[in-house]
Amino acid sequence: MAATNSILSLPPASGSPTNGLRDIKPPVEIPSGWEWAWWFLGAIVVALLGWWLWRYLRKRQAARPLPPPTPPHIRARRRLEEALALLSQPKPFVIAVSDTLRAYLEERFSFRAPERTTEEFLHELQSTNLLDASQKERLSEFLQRCDLVKFAKYEPREMELRDLHASALRLVDETEPRELAPKQAAT
């Protein structure tokens, strides 16, 4: 027993009244796995809400009627009117008018016009029945007069330019699609 008495009689450690004893640690929290399940479930709910919102907005946008496309003859007339602002500059005016007419013919008849030279375009046009003989003749004359201004540096007067404009407008008017009367459409 003497040995136990000697342990008890040891002096206390310096600065520590409790002889090195510490307080009890709080309990360690062990995750049960349910926290991850809740986070996963929350992410799924957010993803589903986002998907639903995306579909709702797409349906709403699709339900909105789009305006009908502007017919080619109306666009051509509008562009021909805009070309009149260039009347004091012969070359830009002629380029605008001829490009407008070529683009109109391409849209109206599904005929590749703007990428071809005048000769190629007229040669291919002669083998089609898109225009009647007088319209083909006037178109040929129109394009040749435009080429004189564009490539031969011909300087026409304002009256000639107005005549070119009127010729282009006349061709658009003559080739504009006509709607059938209700009785004709039924038969």
Name a few traits of the molecule.
single chain; 187 residues; mainly alpha; 8 helices; elongated
Chart the SSEs and their pairings:
Blueprint: H1 2-8, H2 34-63, H3 72-83, H4 90-109, H5 118-126, H6 133-151, H7 158-175, H8 182-186
Quickly describe the structure.
This protein has 187 residues and is mainly α. It contains 8 helices and no strands. The termini are far apart.
Walk me through what this model shows.
The protein has helices at 2-8, 34-63, 72-83, 90-109, 118-126, 133-151, 158-175, 182-186. It is built from eight helices and no strands. Residues 180-185 have low confidence and may be disordered. The relative contact order is 0.08. With 187 residues, it is an all-alpha fold.
Number of discrete helical segments: 8
Radius of gyration: 44 Å
Largest sheet: number of strands, sense, barrel closure: none
Strand fraction equals under 5%
Low-confidence stretches: 180-185
The overall average pLDDT, rounded, is: 83
Structural class of the helices, strands and pairings? mainly alpha
Q: What's the end-to-end separation, in Å?
A: 129 Å
Shape: elongated
Q: Give, in order, the helices and strands.
A: HHHHHHHH
User: What is the tally of beta strands?
Assistant: 0
What share of residues is helical? 55-70%
